[in-house]
Structure formats: structure tokens, C-alpha cells
Amino acid sequence: MINSALEPIEEMLRIPAPAPAPQGVACDGTDLWIGSNETHRIYGVRMQTGVVFEEGAAPGMPIGMVVTGESIRVVTSEGAEGDRYIRRYVIGHGFKSEAIPCPEHTGSFLAWDGDHVFLSQRYEQRILELDAGGTVIRTIPVPRQITGMTIIHGRFYVMTCENKACDDMRLLRIDARKEVHDITEVAGVPFVARGLTWDGIKFWTTAREANELVAFIVPSISI
Q: CA 145 to CA 136: how far, in whole Å?
């Protein structure tokens, strides 16, 4: 279901996901990186064709990810309790051994502003800015549950839903650079979307139920 009061996204491209149950998605400027909840692997994927050029086993279920220079930071769900950690995947080399526990062992998606990593906590409806050791620097409240996020020119773009049913997906823009945060609902999304990234021209997310990667724009907004 899409909220009729909001402008719908405009899909530009759909390509098959490299594995079932895609969730995390990141872009290194040229290619996409996708995590599969079913195979517990991450995949480097050519943006226009979906061809896989690299893959690696994750030390748990890969939930969300973001490219940070030559590495990819990945939230993994590990153990019987599904505790969440932030791990580092070096492109061309695989996962490294270090792991940073997520605050309260809870977290889903990641964004990076060039200096700090930001972690979303879905059911707490907040974004946490973290230092290099995983200590919380500040907390940014969000009015809905977060199912994907990215940062573009200093502002968050956040895929959200109202509750676990995920029947009203909305893309929000949050400018948290001032004391009073500016939050705008910019578009409705007509499918269950997980993950969010930006390739410099368009957004990418996953259509989880269709096992597809979706590129889209929002015509009315200028980025």
C-alpha cells in the first residue's frame, strides 16, 4: 500500500538480486554491494547488469552495510540471540576479525558522512552517531521505524514504515545538522523495501519479496 498523499517514487531500473532475501545494500560509486539474509554472504554486483564479481561469507546474517573508503562496514546478526555487531569487509580481501558490538546489541542499517558511522535502531526509532570504538556520540530520534538509510550532502534519507506489517513505506529526509531537526516525508514506496543507498544519480533499495534490486528517483526533490 502506498500513501496517496505522498508523491510516489519513480522506478528507473530493476535487476535480480544475487541471492534470496536481499537486505543490506551499499554503493562504492561504481558497483553495488548486497547482503543476503538467507545465504549469509555479501556480493559485489555490477550496477547495470546484476553480474556478481565478488562474494564473501559473513560471520552471521548481514543486515545493513555502508561503504567507507576501501572497506564496507556491515551490521551482522550473530548467535542464538541475534546479537548485532559492526564488522569490516575489505574489498578484494574479505572480512577482518575485529567486531564492534552495537549499543545494546541492537542495530540494523548504517550510513557514513565521511567522518562518522551512523547506526539505526529500528524499534527504538532512532539513529546513533558512533565514534570509532562504537561509543554513542549523539542520538537522533526518528518518527517511524527505519528499514534503510543513507546520507547525501549532509542529510539523511531514510526508508521507513509505521510498524512490523510494513504496509505504508515512506521515504523521509532528515536534516539533523541543527538543534531542531528538519524532517520531511518526500515519497511513498509501493513495496516492502529494505536497505538504501545512493549512486550519485539515483537511490537503490531492495524489493525483498521479489528478490530484486530497485533503482529509483523522486522527481520533485533536488539533491
A: 19
